[in-house]
Amino acid sequence: MTDSEAVADLPPPVDLGGPAQPLLTVRGLTKHFPFKGGMLGRTAGVVQAVDDVSFELRKGETLGIVGESGCGKSTTSRLIMSLILPSAGEVLFDGQLVGPGGMALKDYRRQVQMVFQDSYSSLNPRLTIQESIAFAPTVHGLNPLAARGRAQDLLQAVGLNPTQFARRYPHELSGGQRQRVNIARALALRPRLIILDEPVSALDKSVEAQVLNLLSDLKTQFGLTYLFISHDLNVVQYMSDRVLVMYLGRIAEIGPVDQIYDTPAHPYTAALLASRPSMDPDHRREHAPLTGDPPNPVNPPSGCRFRTRCSFAEPVCAQTVPELAPLDRGQAAACLMVNDPRHSRHLEFSPGSGAHPKKHTAPIKQAAQARGAA
Q: What is the rounded distance in angstroms from the CA atom of residue 260 to the CA atom of residue 93?
C-alpha cells in the first residue's frame, strides 16, 4: 500500500446485530492433533485437545475460562482467533460466519485481538514500542503518521509516558510494562473483542493488580468485550461476568460468576473452588478435594470424562456422554448426577474459601494508582 492510498483514520466497526445478538458464537468447535508413530511413521492416534465446545459471548461482558493445565483453554482461544484450523465446528462473529464464505479473516482480526501470556516473546525485539503498536494500523491502511500518533495515545491510555517509552525496545521494559504494551497493541485497531490468555500469570501480585484494574478501566473506556483465560480462580471471579469451566477438552459448566462460585453444579467445578486456600484458620482443608491427574487426551474415558476422578460416578456415567443442560439455578452443567441428593448436599459445602475478591477492589485500585505504572 502506498502513502497516497493510506487513510487518515480507520472506520469504526459496525454493530450488525444489535445488543441482543451475541458478539461471538462458537458451535461444536473441535480440534484433534494427529501424531505419528511406528517404523513407518503412520498416524498412531490423535490428541483430543478440544471436543464439541459451544458457547456464546454477549456484547460488553467478560467470560472467564478456567480449568486445569491441558484442558484446552488456550487451544480454544487460538481456534477462535483462527491461528489454528479446527477439525470441526464454526465460529460466528456478530452473526457472520468467520472464514470461507463468510467474514474475511483480515476483517475479523481487525475486530478481534489477543493478548498472550508471554509478554516478551509476543513482541518483535527489533521494533521499538511505538513501531510495534503502529504496525497493525499501518497494515490495515492507516497513514503511518496517524498510526504513530495513535500508538502514542494508546501508550498514554495504558499508563506509559510516550515521551519516555515510545522509542524503547522490549528488552528495556519490565514484565508489567511489556504487558501494558501488548494491551496497547491489541487496542490499536479498535477491536470489539479482546482474548486475554493468562495475561497476568507471569506478573508479581502488585503489578497484577495494576494490570487487572487497567483492563477493567479500558473495557469501560473503549466498550470492549473480554474472553479472559486464567488459572487463578480469584482473578477470574474478580474480572468475569460469567464463567466457563473446561475439563479434558469439554465444557463442564457455564453460568453467572456468582452462581458458579456460590452453588457449583458440577463436581469438577466444586473441586476446583474447594482447592483455593482458605483465609479462615479454623477451616483449613486437610485433604485435597481432587486427586490424581487428568486422563490421557489420546484415549479419554468413555461417557463422562470426569468419572474416573468423581466420587459420585455411577455405571451410567461410563455409558452416556452428558450433555450441557440448563439448570434452574441459572447455569448449565454437563453432569448426569446433578440431581442426585448426595451430589447436591456435598456441593453445598464444598467451595467456601476466602473472601469475595470483588469486595476489595477499591483498596487494590488505590494501591495500584499510588504505585504508578509498573
A: 26
Residues 34-46: pLDDT tens digits? 988 877 778 888 9
Is 65 in contact with 73 (CB distance < 8 Å)? yes
Q: Are strands 24-37 and 88-93 parallel, antiparallel or unpaired?
A: antiparallel
Q: How far is CA 247 from CA 217, 253, 268, in A?
A: 31, 9, 8
The domain segmentation of the chain, as residue ranges, is: 24-239, 242-274+301-348
105: CB partners within 8 A, 6+ apart: 82, 98, 99
Instruction: Find the DSSP H helices in the chain.
Output: 73-80, 105-111, 129-139, 144-157, 162-165, 175-187, 205-222, 233-239, 257-262, 267-274, 341-348, 361-371
Residues sharing a CB contact under 8 Å with residue 207, sequence separation 6 or more, in sequence order: 174, 175, 176, 200, 374
Cβ proximity of 266 and 111 under 8 Å: no
Residue 359: DSSP 8-state: G
* Adjacent-strand bridge partners of 233: none
**Residue 69 identity:** S
- The DSSP symbol for 14 reads P
Q: How far, in Å, CA of 329 to CA of 218, rounded? A: 32
Q: Which residues of 148-162 are buried (b: 16+ CB within 10 A; e: fewer)?
A: bbbbbebbebbbbeb
Q: What is the pLDDT of residues 244-273, one digit of tens each?
A: 999 999 999 999 999 999 999 999 999 999
- Its CATH architecture, for the domain 24-239, is 3-Layer(aba) Sandwich (3.40)
